[in-house]
Amino acid sequence: MEGxxxxxxxxxxxxxxxxxxxxxxAICRELSSLLFQYNETFDGVLLAYDATVKSKQAKIxxxxxxxxxxxxxxxxxxxxxxxxxxxxxxxxxxxxESVHVIVLxxxxxxxxxxxxREEFKYRVRDGxxxxxxxxxxxxxxxxxxxxxxQVQSFDEEVMHIAGSLLPENxxxxxxxxxxxxxxxPTDRDHKRRKIA
Length: 196
Fold this sequence. Notes:
The protein is of the alpha+beta class. It has 3 helices and 14 strands. Strands 1, 2, 3, 4 and 5 form a 5-stranded antiparallel sheet that branches. A hairpin with a 3-residue loop joins strand 6 (about 85-95) and strand 7 (about 100-105). The longest helix has 11 residues, at about 175-185.
């Protein structure tokens, strides 16, 4: 899935003196407060981190509450989907006008009817709506389906993705993977061609 990146950074984390007994726990608490929020410094949403304290020395800041700064080496997993990139998520709601998807369990994505390919037709079967491809009957989008969509825009404040199903390589992930496997020639087909 595009939009995920691993980044290494050296950070200075400022800790209140009352937290000096367990510095590593205070560092983890500070970094945890940044999780699942867009951060301009990191240029993305922090999903996970791995921190190691660089040295045991700390820099004390002057002021009314003398915080101390600790240098920390971190590895950060960031989520920042750019326009025209592809992300995957689970369909949670389908209507004739839109498809609603949850990406990575925290970001909502919406695909409106103008951004759904013409080959998909909305159908209701057994009280549940779904979009079914007219050209490939097995290619269906229904509740619980893992969906690959193209990002049109990403709103950092509310972490909302506007998506599209217009490109041919979007749709049900399972069906797309099966289709790509069928397109690859097998070793047996290759041997037959050599013999003939």
